[in-house]
Amino acid sequence: MKSKIWTAVLSLVIAFGLWAYVITVDSPETDSNFYNVPVVFEGETILRERGLMLTSDTDMTVTVKLSGKRRDLNSLKSSDIAAVVDLSQVTQAGERIMSYTVSVPGNNLEVISRNPEAITLQVTEWATKEIPLELVYNGRVPEGYYVDKQNATVEHSSVTVTGPKAIINKIEEAQISVDLNGRTETIIEKLRYSLCDADGEPIEDVSTVTTDLGEVLVSVSILPIKDVKLTYTVIPGGGLTEADITVTLDYDTITVVGSPAALAGLDELSLGSFDLGTFTESAQIRVPIKLPEGVTNQTGILEVTVDITIPERETREFTVTNFRSENLPERLTAQIHQKMLTVTLRGLGPVLDRIRPEDITVVVDFTDVEPGVASFAARIEIAGLEEGEDVGAVDTYSVIAGITEA
Fold first, then answer.
1. Percent residues over pLDDT 70 in the chain
2. Last residue of a domain, which of 90, 117, 144?
3. pTM
């Protein structure tokens, strides 16, 4: 019984082996359908040289029926086959119905049929054009911040577009949209752009248009902005105080921008000081505005006109012979070569009438002097004035003195 079973099994194995041999080695002729065979386009360079291009969807496939030995067909995939379209035959724009050749590996297979028999293509004239890149701002930054649009930078100034001539002729600019809503810090980002017509409207169908740029790096500064008051200091002198004069500025404030650190605590800017002892009469002066580092003046005002109106006062000249030294180091001695100095005083007439030359002293400050002969600044002191009697020297004074070792 066992012998019969083994004989049957052996017979089955031998039969299967013979069948496999016939199928794989000595297989008969048969045919098979191959779906999704890719369409390959040749001669695109020649087409481009003629000023033409394809606008059809180039991701096409066909169905091919092949005949041959079973083993050859079984080893073949659709991706191994190609439907080749020769574009060099195209000489003008329009709809073209093109035949194609089926490329099959080896020489043992025959093409029985194809579906479709021909391929319909859309061919159009092509063009290329350089389009300027423009920034378009949307929204607003919060109050207290400034967008420096004038100094915004774009990585490239233009983009080159290539595609159907009819579409390319409509494109006039490439707009980069910058969203400002809620932004309080400088924008440094890569952004995309939209191809637009002369009215700034996006071109709807640009699927057949190619560009030489993807995203573009954009930098737009967003900085704090604030109004800063312009101030000044008045130094009493020449018989005048700040209460006696009128100071008028043509601009009281300016608008500045800068980093948060630069603007922190910056509520006013000083134009400097005005020493009334140096003014002999009313004057109009131009004072430059000096800004801290990192702060920019947005108003464009570089200097301020300051009108100083001085009330009418009398002036008298006095020849002074009283000189006094002060702050002279102990190791040094000073010899003031000048014996007299003409000094101009300003004040009310009745007060000036009471002043005598001997009431006036020229005081020379020798702080930090070194041996030698030099000119030294002097101040004028007036004795005998009562409270409220404002009299002072007009202009600045100096004397020549020699300094020697004690």
1. 93
2. 117
3. 0.59
